[in-house]
Amino acid sequence: MTFKNFQIFISFLFLFLASCSSKKEEKTQEEAPINHLVILSEAQFKNAGISFGKADVKNLPGFVEATGILDVPPQNLVNVSAMMAAFVKSTKLLQGQHVHKGEVLVVLQNQEFITMQQEYLSNKSKLEFLETETRRQKELSAENVSSAKVYQQSNSELQTLKAGQSGLHKKLQIMGFQMAQLEKGQIQSELSVICPIDGFVTEVKVNVGKYVQPNDLICEIVDLSHLHAELAVFEKDAPKLKIGQKIDFRLAGNLSKTYQAEIYLINKKINPDKTVRVHGHLESDIPELLPNMSIKASIEVENNMAQVVPNEAIVSFGREKFVFVSKGKDTKGNFQFEKILVKTGIQGATETEILEPVDLSGLQNQLVVIGAHDLLAVLENAGEEE
User: Fold this and answer.
1) What CA–CA distance (Å, rounded) separates 132 from 129?
2) 320 in any annotated domain
């Protein structure tokens, strides 16, 4: 054999060996067992104390999860402002203070108050004079002693003054002046801001000596007698909701205590975040609950048919949940169990809902209901040894 032929032979030999190695690796990968079967000998099966059962189809109560806040209706949250620019003469407002309707919140003072009341009293005198003069001109016009034009001019001035006086009367009344006293000529140098509702002071924005404008907030008052739950429910769950359904909710900062409410209103609009606003009335007034508290709620909806298994049949591995199903015996007489990935729904005291697409309802006494955790331990140990 020549040297050249020897080189060709060596090259073919290397190619052949590489091809065999590649096929062997592919075969090894193909034959690698999938880690989802548990094999137990008869002795191991007896020691594990495994018992079998089946999945049932039952009518389960459905629940819709939601989040939201506690809130009050707009008419129960009042921003108190001054009707006219003034200085704060006195106030005893404190945050958290309980106040009553008709109570004086703040006393305001401004020289303009006196000017406005003087204008009102002055117009009142002018009005009385013009009414008398207009009647006189009407009589003179009727007797042709005076021209009709003079009467018309006098009557026009009278009507203009009446309109101005009526507007000023309403303005002073809205501001809070005692008009009965003013009609008697008693000018008030101070103006009391009166509490419009019963409730609690949540904000105070003034102090003695502060100059407030008409758009400045003096204080905020909230009436907690109509505290309610404002929930955001996902669009997909909206068709399940009905007026009157029960709501169980807990405070986001304290999940240990549950409170009850009832659906009172369901908004007819889908929000940009694909949620529907649901308004729930609390079953009773609860002192510790306050507006803007974050809550987590569960709404009980209509019952639905579902497949359920005993809680003991479900095991967890990482974030996933599984059940074990008997696959009978192999050729050596060993017991075989298959691990099946499941998605769970509602969990009760003894049973848990199994969601689609897994269907376990056809398994008759093949579902492992006692000993599933032992099977999972065997499977994990087998995986570690590999």
Assistant:
1) 5
2) yes
Q: How far apart are CA 209 and CA 91, in angstroms?
A: 10
Structural domain harbouring 85: 75-222
Q: Where are the beta strands (DSSP E) in 72-149?
A: 77-81, 86-91, 98-99, 104-109
In a domain, 295, yes or no: yes
Mean pLDDT of 132-137: 84
Calculated CA dihedral for residues 151, 153, 159, 161, nearest 10 degrees: -120
Burial of 339 (0-12, 13-18, 19+ CB in 10 A): buried
Q: Please, are residues 89 and 208 in contact by the beta-carbon 8 Å criterion? A: yes
* Distances, alpha carbon 157 to alpha carbons 119, 133, 147, 162, in Å: 17, 11, 16, 9
Structure tokens at 42: 């008869």
CATH of the domain at 210: 2.40.50.100
Q: Could you say which of 303, 324, 341 is where a domain stops?
A: 303
Query: What does the alpha-carbon distance between residue 143 and residue 145 come to, in Å, rounded to a whole number?
Result: 5
DSSP string, 302-337: EEEEEEEEEGGG-EEETTEEEEEEEEEE-TTS-EEE
pLDDT tens digits, 372-381 = 998 988 888 7
Per the structure, the count of domains in the chain is: 3
Q: Cβ(358)–Cβ(340) under 8 Å?
A: yes
Question: Full-prediction pTM beyond 0.90?
Answer: no
Position 200 confidence tier, pLDDT thresholds 50, 70, 90: very high
- Please tell me what DSSP assigns to residue 218: E
